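go over this:
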Amino acid sequence: MNITVYCGSSRGDVPAYAQAARELGEWIASAGHSLVYGGSAIGLMGIVAGAALEGGAHVTGVEPRFFLESDIPQHDLPVLFDVETMSERKAKMIELGDAFVALPGGIGTLEEMTEIMSRVRLRLTHAPCIFLNIDGFYDTFRAFLDELLAHGFVDAYEHEAIVFADSVDEAARMLGEARA
């Protein structure tokens, strides 16, 4: 399974975020899955990719040229797609993914995952859409989705299809169940 992971280009301020990124990369490798991610070797992105690479996973990066031309560190990846724009990056990562997981991250992470959520709503994908809610990072976002349901802006189908895992082990179980 190609697991597309969205996450921060920084490590954040909670050590558990980096630990979860490492555990997710290790699990992807040990379970025989492949990682698709944003391509850089910085922040949580670099940690998840580094752990997956160290574990022997196939890792595919998708990076806009303007990042490649800057001083942003890169891993030596087996596959790195060089795209022109962030929109192309997002489209390629969606095309390559069989499941979508968000570690903690910022506006970019949220923007990428809301695209997946829109695809779920429109029934354009039945791929898992999992927020890795490390140390309660996505609690407020989960409450917002509950408000959307309560006020009729999302239906039960999409509300149930967007899931939150409190640990990498829980996300792994969810991904295993989705695959079965």
